[in-house]
Amino acid sequence: SYFTKAKFLTSAPGITHLSPFEGIEIAFAGRSNAGKSSALNKLTRQKNLARTSKTPGRTQLINLFELDEYRRLVDLPGYGYAQVPIAMKKKWQKSLGEYLQKRECLRGLVVLMDIRHPLKDLDQDLIFWAVSAKLPVLILLTKADKLKAGKRKAQTLMVREAALAFQGDVSVHAFSSLSGIGLSEAENKLMTWLEV
Ligand code: GDP
């Protein structure tokens, strides 16, 4: 797949540290433990591209992965740690909102949510900001292998229905890094954003 050539480019401590980029970026965001690192590793067929770190609050860096000279994947810090002080959460929200609004090279946002616990408050905030910034959103309902087919479809339809409320370009797919459910759908969507 096109994404296998991804390689780590750099980390930035915050959006203000990202230099301007003439190409296209696609950002990945999700609550901590949603399966973001696993999804990035699956997409790129690389075991350790995005570290699957279990240390709360540690992965506050923005990691940039290069696909080619003009295209990048951006791994945003996971959110929703209960242990993180409220002031830090506020700061995170502000900088993420700014990133979605102001990053001109940003072409779309992938939001990862556990299929069993979708659309928590911060997920909804994020989708709302992205849609407000006129960005298309791809919701991947992760760990889909944990549900039987019937329940998986029902959850997907429920989130799809709920996503209509955002009145933007929001698509929803069940996804599993373990079984590969939804992988080709995700790849196809991202390829259209990257114009490849
Ligand atoms: P992150 O914090 O969002 O980067 O989440 P990780 O990718 O580190 O995954 C969190 C936990 O969920 C880990 O224990 C993973 O093994 C597990 N996990 C991630 N994706 C899947 C999946 O598709 N299926 C199942 N069954 N477990 C998954």
From TrEMBL:
PROSITE patterns: G_ENGB. The keyword Hydrolase does not apply. Keywords: Cell cycle, Cell division, GTP-binding, Magnesium, Metal-binding, Nucleotide-binding, Septation. InterPro entries: G_ENGB_dom, GTP-bd, GTP-bd_ribosome_bio_YsxC, P-loop_NTPase. Pfam families: MMR_HSR1 (PF01926). Gene3D superfamilies: P-loop containing nucleotide triphosphate hydrolases. The keyword GTP-binding applies. Residues 22-196 form the EngB-type G domain. Its cofactor is Mg(2+). Coiled coil: none annotated. NCBIfam families: GTPase_YsxC (TIGR03598). Belongs to the TRAFAC class TrmE-Era-EngA-EngB-Septin-like GTPase superfamily. EngB GTPase family. Necessary for normal cell division and for the maintenance of normal septation. This is Probable GTP-binding protein EngB. It comes from Agaribacter flavus. The gene is yihA.
